[in-house]
């Protein structure tokens, strides 16, 4: 008798499949020439994935899917108080959770203690599929606590949370991808999803560009709330990626990245 793989296995397979697909796409149709050594960056960024996984296991008592199941059993949360068709409840949950992630992203940029954690993500000298996984372990833990709080109050179904987690992971790798899309296709796609060209603006060294295009999955929050910027001033090939105070690859080793939030630079 076969059994369904658990949620963690599904997420791992989805992550690896998306990573491989995007890596091949970057080789076949790159958008920009990379400036830093790819092997070093990939080793650093993917090592952070392992560290973050361990940190979550040890520091969090429950994950969003488990909390969604517990809240659902108690009929808690806003959505469980409403008599909605299952499909509509899932769509609303996905929209609300995505908006929460947008607001969280704003907080990590504009609250100095949180920016100290998040700036590690922006210190990458190039942007490609692995940048979408480059986060400080403390940021991952705080982000998950915010997500757990949202799940507790919203009351999404287990299916909605699984779908959201899969979409969030896949889109983070997609919109950080160093891939070339036809201009017309990009123009249409960014009406519905955050495209790589849209998100790349967010990784510019120019602060007013860094503080724009905060969306993860959907571009609508940026458009509605005035944080949308269509293109970088210097063009996608000419723009500089990263932060002005972190231009030395020697300062971007794994150990120094983990200590970066606690430095004054």
Keywords:
265 residues, single chain, mainly alpha, globular
How would you characterize the overall build of this protein?
The protein is mainly alpha-helical and 265 residues long. It has helices at residues 7-28, 38-59, 64-73, 86-110, 112-122, 137-154, 158-175, 183-189, 196-200, 207-210, 220-225, 235-238, 254-259. α3 (64-73) runs antiparallel to α7. The mean pLDDT is 94.
**Gyration radius, rounded:** 19 Å
Structural class call reads mainly alpha
**Strand count, sense and closure of the main sheet?**
none
- For the secondary structure, the number of strands is 0
Structural domain tally: 1
Mean residue pLDDT:
94
Instruction: Indicate the low-confidence ranges by residue numbers.
Output: none
Discrete helix count: 13
Range of strand content: under 5%
Order of helical and strand elements:
HHHHHHHHHHHHH
End-to-end span in angstroms? 58 Å
Approximate shape: globular
Q: What percent of the residues sit in helical stretches (DSSP H or I)? A: 55-70%
């Amino acid at each position: 008798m076969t059994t369904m793989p658990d949620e963690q296995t599904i997420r791992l397979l989805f992550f690896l499949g998306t990573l491989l697909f995007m890596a091949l796409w970057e080789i076949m149709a790159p958008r920009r020439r990379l400036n830093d050594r790819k092997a070093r960056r990939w080793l650093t960024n993917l090592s952070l994935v392992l560290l973050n996984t361990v940190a979550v296991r040890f520091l969090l008592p429950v994950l969003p899917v488990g909390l969604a199941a517990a809240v659902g059993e108690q009929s808690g949360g806003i959505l469980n108080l409403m008599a909605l068709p299952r499909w509509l409840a899932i769509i609303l949950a996905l929209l609300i959770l995505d908006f929460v992630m947008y607001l969280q992203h704003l907080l990590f940029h504009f609250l100095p203690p949180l920016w100290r954690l998040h700036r590690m993500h922006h210190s990458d000298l190039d942007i490609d599929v692995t940048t979408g996984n480059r986060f400080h372990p403390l940021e991952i833990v705080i982000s998950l606590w915010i997500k757990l709080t949202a799940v507790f109050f919203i009351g999404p179904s287990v299916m909605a949370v699984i779908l959201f987690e899969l979409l969030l992971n896949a889109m983070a790798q997609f919109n950080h991808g160093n891939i070339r899309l036809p201009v017309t296709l990009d123009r249409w796609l960014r009406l519905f999803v955050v495209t790589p060209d849209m998100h790349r603006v967010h990784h510019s060294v120019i602060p007013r560009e860094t503080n724009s295009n905060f969306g993860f999955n959907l571009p609508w929050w940026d458009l509605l709330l005035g944080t949308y910027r269509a293109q970088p001033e210097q063009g996608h090939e000419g723009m500089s990626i990263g932060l002005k105070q972190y231009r030395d690859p020697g300062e971007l080793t794994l150990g120094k990245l983990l200590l970066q939030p606690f430095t004054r630079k």
